[in-house]
Amino acid sequence: MLNLLLGELRTAPWKGSPDLSVDTIDTLIKLMLAQAQKCFFEKAREDGKSSSIMAKLSADCAAFYQEVSSSIGAAKSTGRPIGAMSNDWLEVVEWNRLLFDGLQQYYLSKVHLEAFEYGKQLARLTYATNKCAEAVKACAGAADVLRKQFVDAHAKCLEEHTQAKKDNDLIYNEKVPAFNTLDKPARMASPLVKTVVPPRLLDPATFADPEPLPAPPAPEPPPPSLPTPAPQPPNAAMAGMAVGDAAGQDEPPPPSFEEAETLGIEQLVAMGFDREKAAIALKAAGGSVQQAANALTT
Q1: Does pLDDT of 242 surpass 60?
Q2: How many CB atoms lie within 10 A of CB 245?
Q3: Among 87, 14, 195, which Cα is nearest to 22's?
Q4: Is 1.10.8 the CATH number for 254-298?
């Protein structure tokens, strides 16, 4: 998903915020791979895998976290967005980098012990203990539940370093070589972690343009209004004629009460009201369609 987002950001005409910049997403991709590799390491440790396997798995973790740490360091030095992110999680990357830098040497020391190479064992244990101590110091302000993995790793390295030094001083008396003369830790022949595209992202329908919304229904025509009788002049009775007659027009006579009531009911039914309820409401409103409609909607 982050790879997909990275592709969108590279072609976007706008500049992303610190958490949505190309630099940040690229670093997060590397971090997710490092975290996934750490899962492989922890599972293998629980399964009791051999020291040589554990050394390679921890070497892969160390390489992944080193890459993430280098990206963050470069971003901070050049003012790129990732460097402005909260240290609450940026620092955790550095703690893991130190931890696995030490653990890869810790497991290699066990390989030397199995080969009766006590001087090399002690040299790697010394380095491992120091690096794990740096990790413990770096996470001093973290919650205990988070610090535990670093504290436990340092305690284990220190315990085995103390025993190895005692054995070499009293029994084996092997020369301890300089650490920088030892072989670099070997990694797994092929990476165990890689990005996998979710199948749904390969479906063209996932990113197809949405179907347009259906057009709203045409509004219903307003109900017919009652005809308004033409006003009669005050002297119409005396003159013996209506306005319509004066204009030469034949106006129909006003509807009877029954006709007006029937017309009012029809108007209310056209508005969507029940005929029986409309008749009752119209009668209660004294023939006013507007008042009857208001009563029916409340």
Answers
A1: no
A2: 13
A3: 14
A4: yes
What element of type H or E holds 176? none
Spatial neighbors of 10 by CB under 8 A, at least 6 apart, are 22
Residue 41 burial (10 A CB sphere; 0-12, 13-18, 19+): buried
In the chain, domain spans? 2-204, 254-298
Q: Which fold, 2-204?
A: 1.25.40
Of 158, 93, 159, the closest CA to residue 130 belongs to: 158
Relative orientation angle of helices 22-46 and 51-78, to the nearest 10 degrees: 160
Judge residue 136's burial from the number of C-beta atoms within 10 Å of its C-beta, 0-12 exposed, 13-18 middle, 19 or more buried: buried
pLDDT of residue 51 exceeding 60, the answer is yes
Task: Identify the CA nearest to 62 among candidates 90, 123, 103.
Answer: 103
Closest C-alpha to 2, from 36, 25, 22 = 25
Q: Name the residue among 190, 145, 178, 144 with its Cα closest to residue 40.
A: 190
Give the residue among 175, 108, 107, 94 at the shortest CA–CA distance from 137: 94
Within the chain, residue ranges assigned H as helices are 2-11, 22-46, 51-78, 87-114, 118-138, 144-167, 236-239, 243-246, 257-270, 275-284, 289-297
Q: How many residues does the chain have?
A: 298
Give the tokens for residue 37. Answer: 């590799």
Give per-residue pLDDT as tens, 209-236. 888 888 888 887 777 766 665 655 555 4
The interaxial angle of helices 87-114 and 144-167, nearest 10 deg, is 30
Nearest to 95 by CA among 52, 13, 34, 8: 34
- Report how far residue 109's alpha carbon sits from residue 124's, in angstroms, rounded to the nearest whole number: 6
Token representation of residue 162: 């103390």
